[in-house]
Request: fold
Amino acid sequence: MKNVLVLCTGNSCRSQMAHGYLNHFQDSLANIYSAGIETHGLNPGAVSIMKEDGIDISNHTSNHVDEYEGIEWDYIITVCDHAKENCPFIPAKNAQRIHNNFTDPSKVKGTQDVIHQAFLDTREEIKDFCHDFVKEELVN
Reply:
């Protein structure tokens, strides 16, 4: 069983969405974890936008990367530039490190419609990325 870590700044939004989709798209191929270099709690907008697509992440927790010390990672996926640039060294000699900077919808200001669209756009990008990752990296 492979171990996949999804890493973001606060483990509240983008990494949580990716965690949800990676679990959704794979069936017992990997253990999926998400963490942050800080912990900010679950973003309600992320929970809501995932629920619209039938995925419940409301029971996820916001975890610090140090909580997973000692796990042998096969993949470390950073989903924001800040985490990639500021993450402490994670000793994982065999881990494939993958980076994709997704827009942070929690930073968008405007009407409810504008904010909802930002979460929707980011969710769809993350969904596509996770689908492809599972198909290309975990199934093969």
